[in-house]
């Protein structure tokens, strides 16, 4: 019998479009893949666990006082559970691990916003806690980053994240492959 699974949708919230680095040209292809993943998971009977990031008192779009801690438009699907975190990963300051274990869930699918930050960090911690993780890289979104006069593209950041996670903390998998695996399980 396959291990029970859950889809983690991390930080897919209205806070991000309010950030100065938001780029709709990068977001649109991600929206399509995130939507396809959500729809496939629902059809396969895999519960959605929504994670929101909040930073009370920060004055940023992540401050609950600003009213942006809610699903990004188009992603308000019913969730089996919603957790609010203040750390980069979804485990440290939530009851996520207990909630998953109480339901016999040992396999996680990670998706959401930002690839190298909350998604990658959640994947690493999940693996360390004994969960099996599929990192659905194409259903994660990030933006270019700048340091010391150099710009790293979103594609470079995603490739680096895949490199450091693959085979150590997670399996890197795409939406189409997951859909095929889920259909084969039912057949």
Polypeptide structure, described:
The two termini are 14 Å apart. This protein has 187 residues and is α/β, with parallel strands linked by helices. The chain is globular and about 50 Å long. It has helices at 24-43, 96-102, 115-128, 154-165, 175-186, and strands at 4-10, 48-53, 81-85, 105-113, 132-141, 145-147, 150-152, 171-172. The relative contact order is 0.19. The chain is built from five helices and eight strands; from the N terminus they run βαββαβαβββαβα. It has a six-stranded parallel sheet. It has a two-stranded antiparallel ribbon with strand order 6-7. Helices cover 35% and strands 24% of the residues.
Major sheet, described briefly?
6 strands, parallel
Q: Write the H/E string, N to C.
A: EHEEHEHEEEHEH
Summing up helix and strand content along with how strands pair, one would put the structural category as: alpha/beta
Share of β-strand residues: 15-25%
Residue share in helices? 25-40%
Quick summary of this structure?
With 187 residues, this protein is of the alpha/beta class.
Q: Descriptors for this entry?
A:
single chain; about 190 residues; alpha/beta; two-stranded antiparallel ribbon; about 35% helix; Isochorismatase family protein; Isochorismatase-like_sf
Topology:
Layout: E1 4-10, H1 24-43, E2 48-53, E3 81-85, H2 96-102, E4 105-113, H3 115-128, E5 132-141, E6 145-147, E7 150-152, H4 154-165, E8 171-172, H5 175-186
Parallel strand pairs: 1-2, 1-4, 2-3, 4-5, 5-8
Antiparallel strand pairs: 6-7
């Amino acid at each position: 019998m396959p291990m029970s699974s859950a889809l983690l949708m991390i930080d897919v919230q209205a806070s991000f479009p309010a950030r100065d680095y938001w780029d709709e040209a990068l977001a649109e292809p991600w929206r399509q893949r995130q939507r396809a993943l959500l729809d496939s998971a629902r059809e396969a009977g895999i519960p959605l666990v929504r994670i929101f990031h909040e930073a009370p008192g920060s004055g940023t779009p992540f401050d609950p006082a600003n009213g942006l801690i809610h699903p990004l438009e188009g992603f308000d699907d019913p969730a089996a559970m919603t957790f609010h975190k203040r750390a980069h990963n979804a485990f440290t300051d939530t009851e996520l691990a207990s909630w998953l274990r109480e339901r016999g869930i040992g396999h996680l699918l990670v998706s959401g916003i930002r690839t190298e930050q909350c998604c990658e960090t959640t994947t690493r911690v999940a693996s360390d806690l004994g969960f099996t993780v599929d990192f659905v890289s194409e259903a994660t979104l990030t933006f270019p980053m700048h340091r010391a006069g150099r710009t790293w593209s979103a594609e470079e950041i995603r490739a680096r994240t895949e490199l450091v996670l693959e085979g150590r903390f997670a399996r890197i998998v795409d939406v189409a492959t997951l859909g095929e695996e889920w259909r084969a399980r039912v057949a």
